[in-house]
């Protein structure tokens, strides 16, 4: 697989966190994900695994930590923020010691009933703490990238427009992310089932680059479902659907590439739409 990737002119990477225990951290509250606040696992074996991954051809790595929002319980707690930022900084420093570029992903998940303003305040708090921790751990920012959430309303909260999301997200980044960080690659985050997550993620990214064409870092995408939904629902494991599924993936990649330059036109990339949300949730992922 690494040979196929590098032979096509790309770099291979690896996910190095080993998930989290839904039992959560002792003494923390249960948030909208239905479990207490959590801590990412895998630091104890990370040095050896990172070295092995580099030897096998990996040149970058990813680690995801999760934070929940709930205004009624003041979530995320100070404990969860501190732990998330420390773990990610430690992971980043270990990766760099073994030659890997770390993707730092402190994800503030969109589950909940909060509005966009609460997400903005808490995302700013998390990112400020994250870069303090990266500095404390002597992480070389020019050799790392950030994978943050967009600043959005909760899935059950009052809905914000793409312009509101773009403005709040960029303002938050400008307040917290040093210019030395070369790239910011957004995760798309979930959307309600009646919202087309693919098209929405593309439009949000496009609006950021359209409204803010001159920023100190590169704003791009690192989407999962919002890149793959139409592809996977088109394919559904059937050989006769392969060509159409591959074309769907290429089309959405091109749409997001256009969005990086603020040039995407709404509706010009075909999507299975909200029906695909339901089919995707049923298991193809």
The N- and C-terminal alpha carbons lie at a distance of: 20 Å
Name the structural class. alpha/beta
CATH C-level of the domain at 2-187: Alpha Beta
Overall, the morphology is globular
CATH fold descriptor of the domain at 2-187: TIM Barrel
Residues in β-strands, percent: 5-15%
The CATH homologous superfamily of the domain at 2-187 is called Aldolase class I
Write the element-wise H/E pattern from the N-terminal end onward.
Answer: HEHEHEHEHEHEHHH
Count of DSSP-assigned helices: 9
> Architecture of the domain at 2-187 in CATH?
Alpha-Beta Barrel
Characteristic terms for this protein:
285 residues; alpha/beta; TIM Barrel; four-stranded parallel sheet; two-stranded parallel sheet; 9 helices
Layout: helices, strands, pairs:
Elements: H1 2-7, E1 12-15, H2 46-55, E2 58-67, H3 78-97, E3 101-108, H4 116-136, E4 145-146, H5 162-176, E5 183-186, H6 197-211, E6 218-221, H7 225-235, H8 242-260, H9 273-281
Helix pairs in contact: 2-3, 3-4, 4-5, 5-6, 6-7, 6-8, 7-8, 7-9
Short summary of the structure?
This protein is an alpha/beta fold. It is built from 9 helices and 6 strands, in the order H-E-H-E-H-E-H-E-H-E-H-E-H-H-H.
Question: What does this protein structure show overall?
Answer:
- With 285 residues, the protein is an alpha/beta fold.
- It has a domain at 2-187: TIM Barrel, CATH 3.20.20.70.
- 44% of the residues lie in helices and 11% in strands.
- The chain has helices spanning 2-7, 46-55, 78-97, 116-136, 162-176, 197-211, 225-235, 242-260, 273-281, and strands at 12-15, 58-67, 101-108, 145-146, 183-186, 218-221.
- The chain has a four-stranded parallel sheet. Strands 5-6 form a two-stranded parallel ribbon.
- Helix 2 links the parallel strand 1 and strand 2.
- 44% of the residues are buried.
